Amino acid sequence: MKITDVQFIISAVRPEQYPEDGLPEIALAGRSNVGKSSLINTMIMRKNLARTSSQPGKTQQLNYYRVNDMVYLVDFPGYGYAKVSKVQREKFGVMIETYLRERELLKLQLLVIDIRHAPSKDDCLMYEWLKHYNIPTCVVATKADKIPRSKWQKHMKLIKETLGMDREDTMVLFSSESGLGREELWNIIAERAVT
Description:
Belongs to the TRAFAC class TrmE-Era-EngA-EngB-Septin-like GTPase superfamily. EngB GTPase family. This protein has helices at residues 36-44, 86-102, 121-132, 152-163, 182-193; strands spanning 6-12, 25-30, 62-67, 71-75, 106-114, 137-142, 170-173.
């Protein structure tokens, strides 16, 4: 997809702060430091619009990025980061569950998982949540450049089995370094955004 215009719109914590222009939304969830911000920057062909950090727990709201006036990418706070207080984690949980339960403009959830590691308990819980709310899901296995190509299939199989993935859910192999998976993911997003 050719990116002509990208804007950071808002960091929202409550439904009344969500944009009201009716554009379809594609949300990203994943553990802290799994590469969500890098994925967004790769998708929109910008270096640092989504702030990346080596320090986990940087994103603390729902960050809305409007792409080509056609779709929003909505970045969730990372989960599973130990240094975030229990109270803060509960707030994140409520904020994310409210969004997943109530946001009719959500067309697809990207569940971002580091291909080098088996999905965590939190990843599995998130996947179960998405299935519970009948939200179309695409698992994105990031950091593909960090393992040999010969091991991709084995790692993807482990992710699918650990999550207990449904057949209708897709998985995309992704690398922010090489751009692997970018076009495939935009095709999936474009298809979901119009349904």
